[in-house]
Design goal:
Number of strands: 0
Strand content: under 5%
Largest sheet: none
Shape: elongated
Order of helices and strands: HHHHHHHH
Radius of gyration: 22 Å
Helix content: over 70%
């Protein structure tokens, strides 16, 4: 079993690696998390910091809510959110949105609102509408002009 200090140092290393994978400087991460660069440095070194600062950094890195605190308690956790789906899954989802009826989209929006809140539901619906409009434009542009 590792000590709290060792877990803080290991977590700091994981945060530094995640920050670098995202090509963020400490200053950029600090700005996005609304913290000072000194606090981000302390977190990455495993120094002293508040749990709210740690959660602010985790949020910017798209880590699972509460995972850092559980990690520091010694629990086995997955810190990073699920990776984006493979491109073929995205293509299938896009096709499903294009073929969905208005009633289907409204039902999906209600489910998203229950799980993620109204802002996420509105973002989904706007993205679906935009996607459908773009698809219609592209389809119309590929059709030969019948007026000639």
């Amino acid at each position: 079993m590792s000590t709290t200090r060792e877990r803080r140092q290991r977590l700091g290393t994981l945060i530094r690696q995640a920050r670098k994978r995202r090509k963020l400087s400490q200053a950029n991460l600090a700005t996005l998390a609304n913290l000072s660069p000194n606090v981000v440095g302390a977190i990455e070194r495993g120094g002293t910091y508040s749990m709210s600062s740690l959660e602010d950094v985790a949020l910017v890195l798209d880590w699972r809510p509460g995972a850092t605190e559980r990690y520091l308690r010694g629990e086995e956790v997955v810190l990073e959110a699920e990776p984006p789906p493979p491109a073929d899954e995205v293509a299938v989802a896009r096709l499903e949105v294009l073929e969905a009826s208005a009633q289907d989209l409204a039902r999906i929006r209600r489910i998203i609102e229950e799980v993620h809140g109204p802002a996420a539901a509105d973002a989904f619906l706007q993205a679906a509408i935009t996607m459908r409009e773009e698809h219609r434009s592209q389809t119309a542009a590929r059709r030969p002009d019948r007026a000639s």
